Amino acid sequence: MSLRHGLIGLLAREGPQTGYQLARAFDRSVNFVWHARHGQIYPELARLAEAGLIRHVEDGPRGAKVYEVTDAGIAELRRWILDVPVAVGTRNETLLRVFFGYLVEPAELEAFLLSEAARYRGLLGVLEGFAAGDATSPSERASELTVHAGIRMLNAQIDWAEWAANEVRTWPPAQAVSSGDRAGRARRRARRPRG
Amino acid sequence: MSLRHGLIGLLAREGPQTGYQLARAFDRSVNFVWHARHGQIYPELARLAEAGLIRHVEDGPRGAKVYEVTDAGIAELRRWILDVPVAVGTRNETLLRVFFGYLVEPAELEAFLLSEAARYRGLLGVLEGFAAGDATSPSERASELTVHAGIRMLNAQIDWAEWAANEVRTWPPAQAVSSGDRAGRARRRARRPRG
DNA sequence: AATTGCATGTAAATTGTTACATGATTTT
DNA sequence: AAAATCATGTAACAATTTACATGCAATT
Q: Which of A73, A104, A132, B12 has its Cα between 20 and 30 A from that of B23?
């Protein structure tokens, strides 16, 4: 699970903090890289403290619990960054929909692709705001690298979505597909080798 | 959950199939878009059949259960593609590591970035193999769109990783960071405005 | 005084992974 | 005969989301 390393890392990066602050940090800086809700964060902090990777140090204003990272936590973070194989397994809901997009009218799929392009543009605007900074400290330099990655990937996605919308415009109308259309499928399959 | 729509979609796309075949399909065609193990697929098929979105039709050779999609399933799939807001929430473990990459030696981070670039190149090779097809049928045209998306995103990631590796080469050695270094952090923070 | 924001937690449900368990059929 | 592949399932665990529940502090 990357969440625990995200929490250790944020404590290392931004100093002692409460779970609430970490939850907000997940909504800001690292949100486009990883995200988590407080319902997951609070129990995980307790487990990390139990494991000695972070430490509950003091109490803030209104029952706030401040945590800080331990040396063991930083060592674990370094180990994770370099020595643990990166978990594979892409999950892209937009692409899954497009994969089945031949089932809807081309005009509808085109509209979907353009709406996705617009959504990506919105995200790109946010990231470009992040990139405007100066990046003087080591942690800011590292953050800048991830922002650049996001910008490049979003640009690739925007270009693709607009190209794909254009492609779809040339498609013939969708055939009626129903679960009872086994005969139709068999007909098409048989015809293919001849073409 | 997109898994259930992935299952309905594959049954719609490739005709009646067993859970085993669907599990293999998730390892092949849609793997770079979505993935699932049989431990999740079999129970989900039972639930989908219960909900009337797919139907258990016949029994194959050795206790194999063949499912086919129903009209209700296709209607649900169409609804999901167009009318359900795309779930947000990126999760990119590579970027999370790079975000905290200032904690390891620049040479180590550089090596990590180059190893990621190599991994991306491997995936790109697989996708380019998929793209070599002709794409005559509607479903093949749709699949081709997703393959193109994958190729563009992987190229963006390769370019980024190699650019970032180059950036990191110019970084000064990592400072020793430890949990006890609160004074060091405060010192750096106080110094910044003057610079 | 009421609203907003800070702050923590847990319970329940869902989603996903891993490991265990079983047996049939085909290939070597 | 043994090994590989086909085929299904469940149990246990891990990860994640959503909703519920509470209370303090600052602002309007």
A: A104
